[in-house]
Amino acid sequence: MSHYLPEGLPAPAPSRDGLDAPYWEGTLAEQLVIQRCNSCKTWLWGPEWICHQCHSFDIGWEQTSPEGIIYSWERVWHPVHPAFKEENVPFIVVLVELPQADNVRMVGNLLGDPEQEIKIGSKVKAVFEKHEEGKSPYALVQWEVNQ
Predict the structure, then answer these.
(1) Contact 96/117 with Cβ under 8 angstroms?
(2) CA distance linking residue 74 with residue 43, whole number of Å
(3) What SS3 state is found at 33?
(4) Which of 67, 70, 73 is nearest to 122 (CA)?
């Protein structure tokens, strides 16, 4: 798979405190892994130290379905980083709701034609874009319309 994003962008890495490390490990294994409270079973995203529902510190990580629904979107027409050039825009950013994880929402890029018609409620699936070169391999979660 070719890379969707241009070369020259900073590589993501787990936070220094390691809180989100299981998420990044999951992406390399092509799994969507997010937090879930072990006490009340509430799904959480982004990573938290404490459950926002019951305030428990007993937070775990679980794999969820890599499928979602477009909740919102934006077509970006301007380069947002020096690595982006005129040929890298427009691109589409989507807010994806994960029905199998209590509808938590994640942000990502929508693959495909950057001028495609987008419909709120369209089904999408995760695509794991692996970057294995370098000393710290990682994978990005991108989204594509589920045909």
Answers:
(1) no
(2) 25
(3) strand
(4) 70
